[in-house]
């Protein structure tokens, strides 16, 4: 798996797209990072996050569950809008501000270093490639790619998936993070760099801080019964939102799941992908609901996944404009920009994909 690569010297499509995008920012006298509109949104979401957390301690016991649900939604908003841009160094022109934004992932339960390896390096490079992209690896519980083995119980995966998605963030924060930490791998691919002493300290300190903030502190005020039920409810909301939003970009019936070509296909160059990286992204990534300003605001532009995958260091605040430019470039090159017109259509695309693969 570590030998998988894209054809060397083939970057014509990406260079053409980049030229158009760079020209746009030059004409607009704008920078690719966040702008005041993003910072205002970040301030609103941060206020929602802090106030919903405070509400857990002050809302009466009979209504306390609403505060936990609200905080689960607010946590997802932080992940979609602040952490994600910060991790891709597109939130701000300042590296320090980007790092602070990325560190919000530690505050909401996971780890900045792990995310950089899992998401930035593996997922963004080898999208929908088995054994490298951990986003399509469900340990056999789901069959997300046609290249994965099919088991008899997959026949019902389009039904039971929705009942398991609420467990996503719990499994992510309390299993996958530790699995990656101790194995030093994401799926089958080793970390691209060794963890420093600061990275190790950050990992354990943030995990301890999370447990203190979300279990020990609430339990000292509310008691363990109310705390545990609320904590699980919060993660059910957070996990479902995380799972569904990220699945709609790649695990749908409009996306492809390319495989590296064999020795015979490549004349001895085992592991080479069939297309250049930019075309690979166009084949494996799908937009949805690009006309909805509300969905774009709430999801931090994650409904513009094609734009994000091609230009991850451009802030999501610019994606609607990039979408038009990308569409024009694809039309000129006779390439397909894959997209669903609405959120319900994308959900159907995901449902149909699971159903089809489950039935073989």
Description of the structure:
It contains 15 helices and 4 strands. The protein is mainly α and 360 residues long. A two-stranded antiparallel ribbon has the order 1-2. The protein is globular and about 60 Å long. The model has no long low-confidence stretch (mean pLDDT 93). Pfam families: FA_desaturase.
Overall, the morphology is globular
Radius of gyration, whole Å: 21 Å
- How many helical elements? 15
Query: Number of DSSP strands?
Result: 4
Proportion of beta-strand residues: under 5%
Give the SSE string: HHHHHHHEEHHHHEHHHEH
Helical/strand content category? mainly alpha
- Into how many domains do the coordinates divide? 1
Summarize the main sheet.
Answer: 2 strands, antiparallel
Low-confidence stretches: none
Domain Fatty acid desaturase: 65-340
Protein name: Fatty acid desaturase family protein
Transmembrane segments: 38-59, 159-182, 203-226, 232-252
Keywords: Membrane, Transmembrane, Transmembrane helix
Summarize the structure.
With 360 residues, the chain is an all-alpha fold. The protein has helices at residues 12-28, 36-58, 64-87, 95-107, 112-123, 157-164, 168-183, 197-222, 224-250, 263-266, 277-284, 293-298, 305-310, 319-332, 343-358; strands at 185-186, 189-190, 287-288, 339-340.
Write the layout of secondary structure elements.
Elements: H1 12-28, H2 36-58, H3 64-87, H4 95-107, H5 112-123, H6 157-164, H7 168-183, E1 185-186, E2 189-190, H8 197-222, H9 224-250, H10 263-266, H11 277-284, E3 287-288, H12 293-298, H13 305-310, H14 319-332, E4 339-340, H15 343-358
Parallel strand pairs: 3-4
Antiparallel strand pairs: 1-2
Helix pairs in contact: 1-14, 2-3, 3-4, 3-9, 8-9, 9-15
């Amino acid at each position: 798996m570590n030998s998988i690569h894209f054809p060397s010297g083939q970057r014509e499509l990406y260079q053409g797209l980049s030229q158009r995008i760079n020209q746009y920012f030059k004409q607009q006298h704008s920078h690719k990072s966040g702008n005041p509109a993003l910072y205002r949104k970040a301030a609103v979401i941060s206020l929602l996050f802090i106030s919903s957390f405070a509400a857990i301690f002050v809302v009466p016991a009979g209504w306390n569950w609403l505060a936990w649900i609200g905080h689960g939604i607010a946590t997802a908003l932080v992940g979609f809008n602040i952490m994600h841009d910060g991790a891709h160094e597109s939130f701000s022109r300042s590296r320090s501000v980007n790092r602070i934004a990325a560190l919000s992932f530690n505050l909401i339960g996971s780890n900045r270093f792990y995310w950089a390896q899992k998401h930035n390096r593996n997922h963004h490079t080898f999208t929908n490639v088995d054994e490298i992209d951990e986003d399509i690896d469900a340990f056999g519980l789901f069959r997300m790619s046609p290249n994965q083995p099919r088991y008899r119980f997959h026949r019902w995966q389009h039904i039971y998936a929705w009942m398991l998605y609420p467990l996503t963030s719990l499994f992510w924060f309390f299993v996958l993070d530790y699995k990656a930490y101790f194995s030093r791998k994401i799926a089958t691919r080793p970390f691209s760099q060794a963890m420093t002493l600061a990275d190790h300290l950050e990992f354990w300190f943030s995990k301890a801080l999370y447990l203190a903030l979300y279990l020990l502190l609430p339990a000292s005020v509310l008691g363990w019964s109310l705390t545990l039920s609320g904590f699980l409810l919060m993660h059910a909301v957070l996990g479902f939102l995380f799972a569904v939003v990220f699945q709609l970009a790649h695990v749908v019936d409009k996306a492809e799941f390319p495989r590296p070509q064999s020795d015979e296909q490549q004349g001895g160059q085992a592991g080479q992908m069939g297309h250049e990286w930019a075309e690979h992204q166009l084949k494996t990534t799908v937009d949805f609901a690009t006309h909805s300003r509300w969905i774009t605001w709430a999801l931090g532009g994650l409904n513009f996944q094609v734009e994000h995958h091609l230009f991850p260091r451009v802030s999501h605040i610019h994606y609607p404009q990039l979408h038009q430019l990308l569409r024009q470039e694809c039309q000129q090159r006779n390439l397909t920009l894959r997209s669903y017109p609405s959120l319900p259509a994308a959900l159907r695309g995901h449902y149909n994909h699971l159903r089809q693969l489950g039935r073989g």
